[in-house]
Fold each of these.
Amino acid sequence: MIVTERTRARRRDLVEARARHASARIPPDGRGPKPPIGRRTGLFLVLFLASASLVLLGLVMALSATAAPSLSGTDSAWSLFKSQATWLGVGVLALLVLLRIDYHHWKRLAPVGLGVSVLLLALTAVPSIGLSANGARRWLGAGPVVFQPSEVAKIAFVVFVADLLSRPDRHMEDTRATLAPVLMLTGGMAGLLMLQPHLGTTLLIAGVALTMLYFAGARLIHLAAATVAGAGLTAMLVAYSPWRRDRLLGFLDPWADPYGNGYQTLKSLHAMASGGVDGLGLGAGRAKWGFLPYAHTDFIFAVIGEELGMIGALFVVTLFAAIAAAGLGVALRAPDRFGMLLAVGVTAWILLQAALNMGAVLAIFPVVGITLPLLSFGGTSLVATLAAMGVLLNVARQIR
């Protein structure tokens, strides 16, 4: 009787506590939904707020930059903006779902995810299946639903490498069990990406792999050798590909062919210079009206510089720097090696992609056809990046 009465009293207390705090997730019978893993740390808030700021700015700039291409393709200036807003909704949902799933669950799904992504990349090379545009075959899908498998491959690659390098039976001293498999996987994915061709994502995958290997404890001499070999192979691909060679020469001296290979670089620089310190005003930019090709995708940073000026451009750079610093902080304080490598991989992915894109806009790097994360128009890129941020935020909730 005493035990029964105590049990009943305890259940009544739990019911009353839940009634007083409607937001509490304490089910009276001990079953039901549970709160997300961990807590909202300072690093979590920095990552969340910086990402949200970039996404909101990207949505505003999408409205500004897509009006011209929308009118040229349809009768509505809102068509591309509506598409981007729809993809943003999918991406936010993906972020919220992955934020609530403990990142440790992805370990057992890593091989499956990698296999699916490699299969999708291979399918893009099949003429009857892969969709092509502007001389590249990078998309799959039909009708209004079209996606880019290379964006899915980025997530699968980071998760698989993090799992591989964090296994207890894999020691970094044993290069055949750690360094060699990662480099072979990187080379295989690079080959599939170059069939599309997609040099930008190839360079990004290679940079993420080297960064993750470095933080995992690989020897610098091995990483240097891999970097030299990769750079030599890239130089050969550029040298024996006329259009890649012309693009590189156009980057080195855009004035040598101002209406050809140097056109995009010169127009991008002109847009950035036209913005001055405070910009021409939101929506008042001229480059997006057909003067700068791909202004709403690869060159959205030039539109930001023209319309919001140096202040807007520095604001974007500051937000990416905040994500980089917070992501590194999460990696250093992650509860385990797998979480550390996940945080490193996602952070390196976003930072390197942003650097390659903004560097191309500013003529620091050649144009490699890569979007600006969370800002550029592009559904698959936006969803994949937000999903990766969800994984990073989950790690941030569990830091020590």
Amino acid sequence: MTTRRAVILMLDSVGIGGAEDADQFGDAGADTLGHIAQQCGGLKIPNLVSLGLAKAAKASTGRPLPIGMQPPAQVQLPSKYGFMRELSRGKDTSSGHWEMAGAPVNFEWGYFPPHEPSFPAELIQKICAEAHLPGILGNKAASGTVIIEELGEAHIQTGKPICYTSADSVFQIAAHETYFGLERLYEVCEIAFKHVKPYHIARVIARPFTGEHKGEFTRTQNRHDYSVKPPQSTVLDALKNAGGQVISVGKIADIFANQGITKSVKASGLKELWDVTLYEAQHAPDFSLVFTNFVDFDMVYGHRRDVTGYAKGLEYFDSRLPELAAQLQENDVVFITADHGCDPTYTGTDHTREHVPVLMFGKHVTPQFIGGRDTYADLGQTIADYFHLPPLQVGKSFLDK
């Protein structure tokens, strides 16, 4: 019997050029990968180039990707490459992930305004009353690391959690793991998740941290996202229901509200995410999907507008690809993609509406330029096709016929 296993490497926010409707989102001219390469004077990503990333980027923007000369690639496997357009109305994490799994978002998310106070007084009163809180700190849009530095000491002194939002459809709560307590933070987030539902907010995010004083605070890997469920069944549900294994690495399980997940493994940071992905991919049984979100590209580099860090992260990601390629079995396939852009050279700190790359490689993949796809759901449809699952409601497969 033929063994079938697939891996999705989700490069969170690695867009490859503004979408046709980017101007409607205030993102005309955004190009995450291209602008990073341009500002850094090139990128050393030979394995991604070998798999077709530079060609996909050129097809997306009409311009050569300014990465410079590349060292020899260690990954020489055949690949399909192209780019995907987003159907969903947003440019957020949930919409991007759900659409590529076959469930585009055709409604508008709710958002909190960036100015202080961001949250309606009635909402905060309800959360504080049910959670028995003395009040909150923050109440504005902010970078998570910045607001923890700003208010961490006051949080420890008052016992008030730090509540903030961003350009995403989120309500985020930061609290100290020791002084406030991790389980207490999760409890407050569950209460908040219940009360933000009328505002059509996609996620409530627990942001635990440690440290004693300003300059010492560090966020931990015990982040937890409380997410609404996808609007319809996804390829993850289909594979699980057919008896397959869906292994989440990083925050994938949170994004899908644990729908269609059979195993969830926590990991944070590019190195640990790669280490765990390699282990899970090597030990995954037949009829399984390993799905990893490399969140640092978005959270650590994109939103903080750290161009140099983003470039180094991409080069590190590329350096680990040979390890995965070396352990692939005969019929294993790997997909590399993204969920949106987050151009670190662009104004503000928001995601950017962009095309995303889609690469597919494996020992027996037929090399092919698959063009510009009309929806991220083509990825999910291809995975359904690969596993011989019933077709999804949206998307066209680009699997070999």
